[in-house]
Amino acid sequence: MISGGVTKFAKAHPDMDFRMMVKRAFDYAMKDVPDLRTSDIESSRISYFSDHFARQLKAASMVQDYLGLNPRDSRRIEWGGATGGQAIQAGWETVASGRNEVCLVAGFETMSHVETWKGNEFIALASDTNFDYPVGGFYTGYYALMVQRHIYEYLRKTKYAHVKDERKAQRAATEDAKRVMAMVSVKNHVNAQHNPYSQYPERLTMKAALGREMVAYPLNRPMICTMSDGAAVAILASEDVAFKYTDHPVLIKGVGCGTDTMRLADRPHGSVPLFSWEKAEDYANLKYPGVHSFRAGRAAALEAYKNAGVRNPKEELDFVELHDAYASSEIQTYEDIGLCKYGEGYDFVDQGHPFLEGMDYGFDLPHKGTIPVNPSGGLIACGHPVGATGIMQGVFAFWQLQGSIGEHFGNERLQIRNAKRGLIHSHAGTGSSVTVTIMERA
Amino acid sequence: MTPPKKFSKFREVMKEVNAKGAAIYKNPVGTEDLVVLSPYTIKYIHSYAEDSPFFLGLAKRKLLGSECESCHYKYATPRSHCMNCGGETKWFNLPKVGRVHSWTTCYYGGEEFLKETPFNLALVEFDGVDTLLLTRLKEAKEADIFIGMEVEAVFRASPRYLVSDVHFVPTGKARKK
Predict the structure, then answer these.
(1) Which of residues 92-151 of B touch A (CB under 8 A)?
(2) A350: buried, middle or exposed (CB in 10 Å: 19+, 13-18, 0-12)?
(3) Could you tell me the domains of chain A?
(4) How far apart are CA B162 and CA B54, in angstroms?
(5) What whole-number distance in Å separates Cα of residue A25 and Cα of residue A391?
(6) Which of A46, A122, A154, B121 is the most core-located residue (most Cβ within 10 A)?
(7) In chain A, what's the furthest Cα-to-Cα distance?
(8) Residue B107, min C-alpha distance to chain A (Å)
(9) Range B110-137 burial, b when 16+ CB lie within 10 A, else e
(10) What is the per-residue burial (b if ≥16 Cβ within 10 Å, else e) of B87-108?
(11) Whole-number average pLDDT of chain B
(12) B155 forms bridges with which residues in the sheet?
């Protein structure tokens, strides 16, 4: 990767249509590599999630057209919530295969054109429309179902095993998990205060985070990402030409992608695909993935670590930008990608591992900064214009690895010192598709 | 149409567009953006195809699952071919009593379902069946529900041929007709 650009994510951008948003992000990225001419870009991979939101079929062709890239190779990439992550991998394949030297990855979403609850309906159309959608048509509901079981498996059966009354035990475990999810929400909102691209920067307190309106028990407003308008681009180049355009390219070292059933109801209850540091005995009584964990995320991480030669992600990664559409799925993802074992996600937060070292969150944490997760503020605080989101993560990771956060954010607060290797993670469709990409300073 | 009115708050623009069909947004970035109402309705002719027997079954107060004829994996949400071995499945009657595998109470929902909030969703597990069924859980409040709670199927008296023709209630809470 040789350059990137992001528009500020916002509730609505009535002054820009989707083409203009991409153009702005594209111009920003081009300015950063002045020796690269538009004519050097041989192909594009353009991503947006929903034809319902866009209400313009072949919108990717219109982006290609607006950027002046005709008559070169282009295609649209769509992969639900993981659309952006998949677009980066599609661009990587184009370059890594030797087909092209320079490929543009560009993504956008315009979600402001319908009202919020109609938007929720559109998103829920990415669930089985025979069996799942007519029951409630609500993604937050699906993720609430998943985290309730996660809490049951990993808190009720352990920390709250001593409580005899089943209802009381489950309630206590859920309230405990809510507290930890609020900590994740505080982390991401507080980090975002220093990210000028974020939609919801806020000095959020635990009291405020826990006090806000419930959406689907136990998930409340600050634990859920919102709909946004936005665009992001990443310019990828082969190792042969990258240094022609920048002294600080970033290597896409390994990619992985995993999948699972669309319907939660169909998820198997089998055994865990293990990382090298895990043993089958660790999960002797665990039925996996059930609805509590994301097998797609585990499969994507296994593939990406293998390709990148990562043996111990907690030690070898300097930061992670992961798909926190919900505070719950951020915690579930720590376990899927091996930052901790299954069942350790809540404690991982309590210990402070995913928080930034020099940041004040309003509470004490014993082990801050082990492996910062979502230093940018993540989806919860940056916003989630679906087709742009995974590319946005790629751009933030790129700037981290270049050491250029200060230049692009106007302040150094979120710069991870001496960051050498990072992970980006994109997640879709109740966990039916996940991408993991490892990026390294070249 | 009268010339569109101008507003400096986008919320007011949305209100005006919904009422009058058009408005101008005096954008703080310095532009004047014309915003119009653009309706879009569709009626699909949707076939349940191979899933049809399940929906016809609900109308006869039957809950049908499917079982793989090769590996005997049993699906509570039916599918015509097995995801494990690719074998064909046959229909079987699911028990009408199961347990809550996971649940939530939704205070919001997709626009179509907002008027029904709050409502409970539950994934139901059945003895001897390998997969789950997503359903509404009625006659129970957030504070009452727990994982493991026994629930039973209730069928809609006049079918709408939707999966919501069946819902579940805590055992013993079915309204006697």
Answers:
(1) 101-114, 119, 121-123, 130-136, 142, 144, 146-148
(2) middle
(3) 145-225+250-441 (3.40.47.10)
(4) 10
(5) 11
(6) A46
(7) 69
(8) 5
(9) bbbbbeeeebbbbbbbbeebbbbbbbbb
(10) eebeeeebebebbbbbbbbbbb
(11) 96
(12) B166
Distance CA B163, CA A135 (A): 7
Q: Do you know the residue count of chain B?
A: 177
A9 three-class SS: coil
- The type of residue at A427 is H
Rounded to whole angstroms, how far apart are CA atoms B36 and A125? 25
Question: Amino acid identity, residue A129?
Answer: T
> What letter would DSSP give residue A152?
I
Instruction: Centre a 10 Å sphere on the Cβ of residue A20 and count the other Cβ atoms it contains.
Output: 15
Q: Which two tokens stand for residue B32?
A: 């004047």
Those residues with Cβ within 8 angstroms of residue B22's Cβ, 6 or more apart along the chain or in another chain: B1, B4, B16, B34, B35, B36, B37
Read off the amino acid at residue B155: F
Are A128 and A267 in contact by the 8 Å Cβ rule? The answer is: no
Query: Cα separation of A10 and A16, whole Å?
Result: 11
Cα separation of the two ends of chain B: 55
Of the pLDDT bands very low, low, confident and very high (cuts 50, 70, 90), residue A249 is: very high
Query: Is the minimum CB–CB distance between A270 and chain B shorter than 8 Å?
Result: no
- The pLDDT tens digits of the residues spanning A221-243 come to 999 999 999 999 999 999 999 99
Mean pLDDT of A215-220: 98
Q: Is the pLDDT of residue A387 over 90?
A: yes
Nearest chain A residue (CA) to B47: A130
Question: For residue B172, is pLDDT > 90?
Answer: no
Q: Give residue A21's region: left, alpha or beta (phi > 0; psi -120 to 50).
A: alpha
Distance separating alpha carbons of residues A320 and B22, to the nearest angstrom: 44
Cut 0.80: pTM above it: yes
Q: Which residues are within 8 A (CB) of A393 and not within 5 positions of it... i.e. 6 or more apart?
A: A84, A85, A321, A322, A323, A376, A424, A425, A426
The average confidence (pLDDT) of chain A is 97
Residue B83 contacts A where some CB pair is shorter than 8 Å: yes
Chain A: closest CA distance from residue B96 (Å): 17
pLDDT digits (tens, 9 = 90+) for A305-355: 999 999 999 999 999 999 999 999 999 999 999 999 999 999 999 999 999
| 3-class DSSP assignment, residue B115 | helix
Under the banding of pLDDT at 50, 70 and 90, the label for residue A83 is very high
Q: Would you state the torsion angle of the CA atoms of residues A208, A380, A189, A438, taken in this order, to the nearest 10 degrees?
A: 150
Reading the block at residue B86, the tokens are 């690719």
Tell me the pLDDT tens digit for each residue of A94-110: 999 999 999 999 999 99
Using pLDDT thresholds of 50, 70 and 90, give the confidence band for residue B175. Answer: low
Q: How many residues does chain A have?
A: 442
Q: Give the span between the Cα atoms of A280 and A271, in whole angstroms.
A: 8
pLDDT exceeds 50 at position B177: no
Residue among B14, B29, B135 whose CB faces A135 most closely: B135
Residue with tokens 């809470």: B173
- Quick check: B70 contacting A, CB < 8 Å? no
User: What's the pLDDT score for residue A223?
Assistant: 98
Question: What's CA A435's distance to the chain center, in Å?
Answer: 9
